[in-house]
Acetyl-coenzyme A synthetase
Amino acid sequence: MTSLNDQESSKGLAAHEIPKLFDPIGKASISLEDYKQAHAESIRDPSAYWSQQAKSYLDWYVPFDQALTGDFSAGDIAWFAGGKLNVCYNAIDRHVRNGKADQVALVWEGDEPDDIRRLTYLDMQRKISQIANALHAQGVRRGDVVTIYMPMIPELPMTMLACARMGAMHSVVFAGFSSEALAQRISAARSAFVVTADLGKRGGKSIDLKGIVDAARAKIDCEDIITSVMVWERFFDQDSETAPYDMQPKDVRMDLLVAGQRPCHVPEWMDAEDGLFLLYTSGSTGTPKGLLHTTGGYALYAAFTTKNSFALEDGDLFACVADCGWITGHTYVVYGALLNGATTFVFESTPVYPDPGRYWDMVERHKITQFYTAPTAIRLLMRYGDHHPAKYDMSSVKVLGTVGEPINPEAWRWYFEAVGKSKCTIVDTYWQTETGGHIVTNFPGVTPMKPGSCTFPSYGIDTVILDPMSGEPVTEANEKGHKEGVLAVRQPWPGMARTCLGDHHRFMTTYLKVYEGYYFTGDSAYLDQDGFHWIVGRVDDVLNVSGHRIGTAEVESALVSHAAVAQAAVVGQPHEIKGQSIAAFVMLTDGFSESESLIKELRSLVRQEIGGFAQPDLICATQSLPMTRSGKIMRRILRKIVCNEVESLGDTSTLADPSIVDELIAKVAELQ
Ligand code: 6R9
């Protein structure tokens, strides 16, 4: 491979250094010029473009008439409405019919590297049908919401697909969330059905998921809402007559229930605009919102982006190591590869168990062809050194993907050189829970790569950089030659979420009314001189910790629920591996004083209310916070303090008590 510029080793590359351009790698399906033309065509008439794609990617039971109706201003977007299909049928049954019955559809590797299961398309069809019948026996019907709180075992994607098969909406809650967070999501969706497992395994440790579900049932109005809790057993023993956990009323031993079902089930034919799933995600204010994704548009977008962004071919083994509890797990573990008739890989463990070569060992043993992870994992593994990836034969890999946050050029280089041996494409895929699939990404063999840039919009996506003040498209470059502003999209695409469950107003005001006529991503970004997209980060109060989205408001509300905390302000601080970590400032209630045990209590409170991944790294207790005279906390100043940018604090004269700033600077310096 030759590159357009000299390539240099990742060692010693300064963060500010101008990144180099890398030639596309691998056999090109089309040229960059062809991409540009095809992209222009795809956004010229989105209805015509997606109509054609929908016919080629999916099997329809009843064809649709018009691809797109509605627009951003009215917030009534519908794709392929009137058309009928079933997503599980498209992901599984049609491949069984088309000669792939005996092809492996899913490869699972558990926490222990020798714990492996392989399921063919026929196995999947039979087991998913049994699960659908079991759900039906428990009372689940078309349109119901089924909450899934499970570890990464094959039964997780299969339960999701069983819901899709019977027209129920799954609402998967990441198994790292606490009982409080789980209860909140069950209650918000009024979900009568919960599917869980007795335990999860990660890094050699067992996690008592059933215990967490039981604790959730004791909260809010959950027990009144729930009619059935179906419990998979992580180590199911057919001969054991008792459940290996403390059975509660409404608990059902799922493995037994499923084993007693017929392995055939007729899929429900759904309208393209019927709900497929709910997924709760953090916003800048209030409680997490339940985003609704619908059947036809989402399925098409999952299939289409998996195929194009990863150059997926027949026979590929596609490995996305995200958890099914996040959107990446939905689109790229469960739906994308299966809709294309390829093989998907499901991984239960962590990148460092039993050692930091785990990913690369899996790539070698299973001959993985596409591998997809997040910058936080890459940075972590990079610290353990090149000798781990060097030990393994990873020649099967064609494409290495990254998602979740901007990848720093050093991590990109390491992924490219130490993992990919400079022979694989790195696809930097920018997208969100709301977008359903990639919206800005390079294409293997087509787009040149710049470390840290997600390059160009995907097909059918019309991106625009808006001036945050005027809301007008930015046309002038700044002194660096960048067109900088906030990232928005001009027209609907099939994979976008349609609403927030029960709160369309919130959907409109968060995404479609901020800049009238556009979908607003909440990210700031710029285009460089070559038109490459660079994501800078969130402009709202959403933090990105190890690729997990966390609203500052959620952490603050957990903290103020403690009697000692009068007010709390949470900001992000840069973290070498996590990307961002959480810093919390808590103003103590009169009569309380700072102590080590109080800080500990506050940490565990956040763990309890949200989950371990949302715990603040730094908690600074103080008698006062920097506030304007009207009582607004100046988070901007706190952000500068934790980022050690105190020389650029800006004007602090509007503060009610400017002296607090020096106090906090000293205190944070001590804590850091
Ligand atoms: C898929 C996912 C969305 C937010 C998004 C942005 C950040 C995701 C990125 C990226 C730069 C990338 N983000 N991918 N930033 N480059 N390739 O992560 O969804 O959890 O909803 O987070 O993540 O800030 O707005 P979600």
